[in-house]
Design goal:
Elements lengths: L1 H25 L48 E5 L3 E6 L4 E11 L7 E4 L10 E2 L11 E5 L3 E8 L3 E9 L11 E10 L10 E8 L12 E5 L4 E5 L1 H4 L15 E8 L1 E5 L3 E7 L3 E10 L12 E9 L9 E12 L2 H4 L19 H15 L5 H15 L1 H16 L1 H10 L4 H15 L8 H17 L21 E5 L2 E4 H16 L7 H18 L4 H23 L10 H11 L14
Amino acid sequence: MDKKNYLIGGLLIVAAFASLYLGQKFAPPATVPPPVSTVVSPADTTSAASAASAPSAGSNATFTALAKAPAHATITTLQNAYIAVNFTDFGGAIRDVGLRKFPAELNHPEPYVFNALHSDPMLAFTDFPGLDANTPFELVSSTATEVVYRAVLGQQLEVIRRYSLVAQPDDTHDPYQLRSEITLRNLTEKFLPVARISLSLGTIAPVSDSVYGQKVTTGYSTGSDQTFIARTQLEGGSGFFGIGASDPKPSVTSGGPIVWAALTNQFFTGILTPDQPGVGLLTHRVKLRPLAPDDQHNAYGLAAAAQFDVKPLPAHGESKLGFSFYVGPKEYHRLSNADIFKVDQDKVMQFGFFKWFSQILLTLMTWVHKGIPNWGYAIIVTTLILKIVFVPFTLAASRSAKRMQKIQPEMQAVREKFKDNPEKLQAATMELFKKHKVNPVGGCIPILITMPFFFGFYQMLQGAAELRFQPFLWALDLSAPDTVGHVFGIAVNIMPLLMGATMIFQQRLTPQPSVDNAQMKMLKFMPWIFILFCYSFSCALALYSTINGLFTIGQQLVNNRMKDVGDTAGPGAIAVENAAAFAGKPVKNVTPKKKK
């Protein structure tokens, strides 16, 4: 019965992974327009959003429409070697930001543009009567490092918007970080109340159609905790057999304090850090493809706006709001720089439960990359460093596995002798372990140590912008599967197959103490399940697992040739007698008869 259960369980696991993978591969494609392009030149003077129209009146109202750029908007640009920031005089805000070090597409020079399609320009006023993205601002001054805009609302409130960008980064300025200041001045002779201010963080889109909704998020920090809102939380769904079903939501409002607020996709982020905490964050779902069906998954992005309260202004008084606005790659070594960023802004990496391991791995890999220019080789060296550090644990586990395999006949004899007395069976088994210096859980130690690093590596790769479009051998992009072709519509990924081959060979070399045939079959199934599970993951993760397996194979070959001098116990029959005596039960002679 147990063997049947193991077999059924294994088949169900295989079927689950197979259906998950093949279901995505062979699902009929929806008839939608081409994917949203983020290839927008920072020098362009017309917004990419002007080509998009709002949804028709009969469409689903649970999303925000794209904005149309004003026809006569004047664009002013601040730039350094890393970013090109395009400002619009309508709203006195940031139309978009071109990331000059990061191409939008592989083998194309055009930079990735943050906020290419949007519902509002970045840092534009939203929900403020008379001050929004359609309000014309006067360009007061423009230099190579600073832009100043001005507008007057109803002859009562003067609004000055000042932006500055450092030309060269230093110890206190990051090249991707912009400084913004808003001055509100009362032009009247009496107290002037000011409505709550909402500033747009922009609109974030998926980097490609191959990623899922959880890669597109908004987030904020209260100073002690961080909260992230995935696009899927606004999409609704039927739940699991009706459990947890929910309707689509147009927006989600989060309470403050807002120490910083962010928009993120897989590799890039925009982080607004006010000098004084905000009071809330409003997250909208935005339809990026107006002509796509409402249920098309990747037709949507997210927009966010941070909210701030301003005290009433006395006669001719003024109030200032200051912000730091980072728009750039999700690079841990950059965002964890406490001299420039707040302590917890690196949390936008969203490493999850294994964050400590992800941080260690990414820091180590970045350090290695300083001496090795190719990221693929940097991953290999990082993996080898980890394996060398864990050699003592691996050797101890391997010795334990060998001893466990060696005493299997004796353990079987003990089981037969005390099969009707569980208490004495346990005592005799423990004595047998003690005599042979076997740690019954010793084989689990390497797994317990290495598995968090595996999951940490996986989490780290989800947002490591350093690996995007980085080649290695036949792979064109370490952050994506190393597909070399297709057979019957199925992608051929080489590195996961190499990873699986190393796992199978490693399994054959490793001592297998188990004598349960069903368990042995389950163990043989595991490499194949792992191949299915990792087949569509990034090439970098499969490379890490492959090198880890090759090193383990070499280590196991050496270990199998080493003599175990620590096992001082006598022959199997004597060990059985000692174990039985320890259990308090006289035994008959179990010495095997000599052959004539």
